[in-house]
Structure formats: C-alpha cells, structure tokens
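Entry under discussion copied across for reference:
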Amino acid sequence: MPSPLPALIVVDVQRAFDEWEAAGKRRNNPDAVARIVDLLAAFRTNRTPIFHVRHEGTKPTSSFLPQNSGYAVKDEAREQGGEPVIVKRVNSAFIGTNLETRLREAGIATLVICGATTNHCVETTTRMAGNLGFDARLVRDATWTFDRIGPDGDAHSAEEIHAMTLSNLSGEFARIVTTDDVIASFAAK
C-alpha cells in the first residue's frame, strides 16, 4: 500500500553552480536555495523521507568531478543523518541508481522535486517520475537555471527557459507547485 507521505527529492544542489555564477553565468530565481532550505525544514519537522541527489561528472572538463570543488553539496542543503544520497552520472536520478527501488520498497507514491537545473536534471528526473507512475510535484520556486544560447545562436533567458520547462511538464508529467503549497499540505493533514 502506498505511503500517504511524500518524499522530497533534492536534485544537484552543488557548489558547481556557484562557480558558474562567479564565472559570469546568469541564473534566474535567486531565492531557490532558500526555498529548498524551507522544504528541507518542513520535511524534517514532519519526519518524511528526503533523498539527496548528486551529479558525478564523467567528462574531464566537468565541474562535477568528485575531486573538484564543484562536486560538493552547498552547505545549506547538506544531508542530515539517515537521509540517503543518490549519486547519478546522467541527467535522471532514476538511471543507473537505486532511487526507484528505494521509493517502491518504502511505498512512496508522491515525489516533491526541487533543485538544479530546471531544464536539465530536474526536468529529466521529473519526466521519468511521471512516466514511472509517481505523483510528481515540481516546486517552481525551489529550482533554477541559467541563460543559454540555442542551436541557431538565439539567446534565451533563464526566466524563459524556466517558464517553458514548467509549461512542458505541467499536467502530463507533474503538478507544478510552490514551496508554500507543499508546506501548507503538511498542515492540512
């Protein structure tokens, strides 16, 4: 029988993104990490499962190589005792890991997903969660991305990319929610 409690999936809140910003990359949603901290506090207070996901780079130039400073988790989002860390090497937290098995064995049906970046690992993990039959909820104010140049040389702002990703996922793969929505859902139980 599925658990009525959701699990929080915190995707790739790692220092590499701070390094990208310091190097001049522009991002949206500057309060995203503070919202992730709020989610972590709510899930811990309500004693509900939290899974931390880390990206381990495989290319020699990756900011996420384990020996590089960017691999480390941001201090404010660090796991606490008993909170598992899932290490992935591709965009989805479900590929090459035991995340799905752990969730199924715990009877967890609802996933609250946050982290970085909206249009890469968060999106891929959210799509797969929906395809695997989980009730996925993507927290719009607890994720962020960066400006990008498209294949035709067109500049796309982080805000545009974030909004389009949420639009693409909404309804078919996930419910798009806010941190306040998630915290209020605990109070309603």
